[in-house]
Each structure stands twice: as structure tokens, then as C-alpha cells.
Design a protein that fits this description.
Number of helices: 4
Radius of gyration: 26 Å
Strand order of the largest sheet: 6-9-12-15-18-23-26-29-32-35-37-38
Mean pLDDT: 93
Structural class: alpha/beta
Distance between the termini: 49 Å
Helix content: 10-25%
Shape: flat
Largest sheet: 12 strands, mixed
CATH architecture of one domain: 3 Solenoid
Strand content: 25-35%
Low-confidence stretches: 1-5, 359-364
Amino acid sequence: MAASGRGTGDERFFAHSGSQSLDVLARLAGAEIRRPADGREVGPLTGVAALQAAGAEEVSFLDNRRYLPLLSNTGAGVVILGPAFAGQVPPGCAALVTPQPYLAWARIAALFHPRPAVAPGIHPTALVDDEAGIDPAAEIGPFAVVGSGARIGAGSVVMAHAVVGPGVVIGSDCRIGTHASVSHALVGDRVTLFPGVRIGQDGFGFALSETGFVSVPQLGRVILHDDVEVGANATIDRGSAQDTVIGAGSRLDNLVQIGHNVRLGRCCIVVAQAGISGSTELEDYVTIAAQAGLIGHIRIGRKARIGAQAGVMSDVDAGADVIGSPAMAFREFFRNVAALKRLARRPVAGGKAAGDHQGPDADG
């Protein structure tokens, strides 16, 4: 079937607010306007697009030197960029110059494509307990379930097939994605749970007896503070004897696992397939890269960064950057890598480098 609609912000999927003036965009982004060098007038802008695809009525951005070659050939009417690149804008293109181009792009893209409006009300197929409290300005979608004593705040949306368990509190302006489930949780305002998220299930706790394992009751909750986002199919276990806490503004990527009693500070980032074991604490502004694993009962200091696939087995100091398994300081890790490479090149008996050794079946 032939493609139709917009390439960026296809209107079949994304709402569109209509055209915007350059002055409005500049005020929103806090950016300086530099008019086209050839004197061309910049008319109303209709949307956003990538540098290589944008047309004369669209806005694009540049925030990475790697893509600088695309700037000279862009057909965009306006480009958002930093002061270092402002002198390289083509003559027929206006510039919005700001020290934070990506932030400006986020704000402008959201202006053109606001998130879908809430349609207040409860769908006829939804199952809402009589003891649940649903704000009149909230939306409950098809086949959603809301348990007894649950509370859903104004402007929040519980999407199709999502389940909000008994007693759960959802604040205002939240989005609970399709097929997500939330139990044993208190959720703040402006929280987004993407499809398939699981919040509040049992933590992984058991005792060993002579006849096998005995599950330990998990009696804590999950607390999600304001402005948290949790990616698709991520899981956050409820606490065992205390709460699992995700600090305000934190972002969890798809397929992240958070164990029981874990505590994240403000604005932490946990990237895809990373796992944090029980009772580990992250201070504010910590970054955990993809596929990293953290054992339980350790503390990660403020603004520390954990590299991809790192195995973290002890506390990490504030501001430290670590990588590898077991995790170590970046410089130490790469010194070790260089040393191994030198060893692999060292000649051994027969005049070959150590890395050139072949077993008896190497040619077979």
C-alpha cells in the first residue's frame, strides 16, 4: 500500500496544532532569531522534520557535529542550532540560535504535535468498582479495570485493557498505557506508564527451608513521584518491609527491572534492559546505561554514571564513571583493555603472537 500523510508527525497517528509563526517559536524556545541571509521572508511554519527531509515551511534542528554536512543542503525554512554552527546556515534558511538546541526542538515539536486530548468519561466496556473514585475529568478506556478504593485524578487516562488495582492512587494528568497493570502503588502527577508496564507485583523474596523455598510476604508499596516515565514492559516490584521509591522526574526505559525496596532519587535515568537488585539506592541524577546490572544493598552516589553492560558489585562514589564487570573506573577499565591487547601481540614460542595460536582443529 502506498504511503500517505506526513513523514514526520503523520497525522494518522499524531495530532497537529496548525501553523506557527517564527516569533512564537522563538519565544517558546528562548532562542535568538537570525533571518535568512538572502532576505527571504519566513512565512508560517507548518511542522518539524529532519534536516535531510525538511521543506521550506518546516523546522529542523542540529545538535550533533556529526550531522553538520547535512546542514549545507537542507531545505528547511528554519533550523534550531547552537551558536557554534550559526554561521553555517544556508542563505535561504532562518536560524533559531540557542545554547540548548535539543531542548528547544523538544518544546517546538510538542507545540506542533501536542499529546492527544483527554476525552473525559468511562467507556461502557470498562469495569470500574462502585467504591472507586474517578474524577469527572479523567478518561477510562475500553475494557480497563479499576479496583475498589482506587482513585484516578483529573486529566488522567487509563487506556484500553489497563488494570488499576484496589486502593491504588493515580494523580492528575497521568497516562496509564494499554495492558499496563498497577497495584500496591501511589502515583504522583504527570506520570506516564507505557504499554505493558507492571507496577507493584511481588518482589523476589524467599526463605530456604528443609523442604524447599518459602515465599516471604512483600508488604511494601511502590511510590512513583511526579513526572516519572516508565517505558514499555518495564517492571517495578513493590517493597518487602519498606517501599520501592522512584524519585521525581526519573526516566526508566523499556524492559527495565527494578527490585523490591530500591530507591531512586530525583531525575535518575535507567536505560533499556538494565536491572537493579533489591534495596539498592541511587542518589539524584544517576545514569544507568543499557544492560547494566546492580547487585542489592549498595549505594550509587549523586551524578554517578554506570556504563553499558557494567556489573556493579559495590558502592559507587558521587560523580564517578564506571564500566566493566566487575565495574571499575573508566580509565582503569581501558588501561586493562590496552594491557590485554599488548599481551595478545606478545611473541611466544614459534615466533607467533599469543593471539595467533591455533588449536589442532583450527583448519578443519
